[in-house]
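Example (one chain per record):
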Amino acid sequence: MSIIAAVIIFSVIVLFHEFGHYLAARTFGVEVLEFSLGMGPRLFSRVSLRSGTRWSVKILPFGGSCLMKGEDDDDLSEGAFGTKKIWQRILIVAAGPFFNFVLAFLFASIIIGTAGYDAPVAESLTQDSPLALAGMMTGDEITSIDGKKITIYRDIVNYVSFDLGNESAHRPVPVEWIHDGQKKSADILLKTSSGSPVSVFGLYGGGRFSAHGNLALILRYSLYEVRYWIRTTLLSLAMIGKGRVSLDDVSGPVGIVGVISDTYRETKKEGAFMLFLNMLNMAILLSANLGVMNLIPFPALDGGRIVLLVIEGIRKKKLGEKIEASINLAGFAILMGLMVVVLFNDLRKLM
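Predicted structure:
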């Protein structure tokens, strides 16, 4: 069942991504030749009499596609991708990643509406903590640390994990919070420059606060949740770029399926409702991650296609079908090479 759960999560995320491309394409009058879930040979398909789109389910459950007329060639006939204005084509390409963020937002709304939100509230403070010495009390809500906005408790965790440098332990760090509706602030000296919010700030938190029936609160914290995962993905990519992350810390599809399977097994005993919420949480992480990764300006990704369209807009003409095809092919080859490396690394860790 854990493998089935992983397949369902991946399928929903990919399907929603491709559906974003589909809706944008249809909005701007681009003919969609085929919309498919999965890869490889078709298991079954049906052609829509209204739109002419072939809707397909393919044998391999991972992946999907939205094949548009003239997407990869110089076809300029009616309904072709290339006949549309630059800004329309950019929106069509960007709609896929955008829909990943929309999906993450919808799933976050379900979790927050039922299980509550993750407010950056001090549930307790150690007696000699820097925050307690500065006047913060239990129940106060932290709004900013070192100039960085804090919206959920995990923002504090991220600050400790990603933003906190060794120099922070030797200089006052400005912290802002709300006490009884009033804004407070102080410059504090941290206990250490690494560890957890407890070791760094003497702060305990991370509990869930009910948002039941409060639509405005649910929507606001759902946006915070998506923002958190987008920022976490970007910070993780930055760490990879700086060489601060080893290969053992990087996972591909096999590793992700393993994480989903572990989460499934660990939470199954807590009941169907908790299992459902944990699977939704995994889907939020993966959907936001896919949205960010696809916007990276690298050939063969949506971000790379957007860059080519921007160049076309500046030059007032395309680079040429052969040149763009070569760029995309080279990017695809590099991505496949990276995927092979990550795949073998996942298998090595499993063994």
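Caption: The chain has a mean pLDDT of 84.
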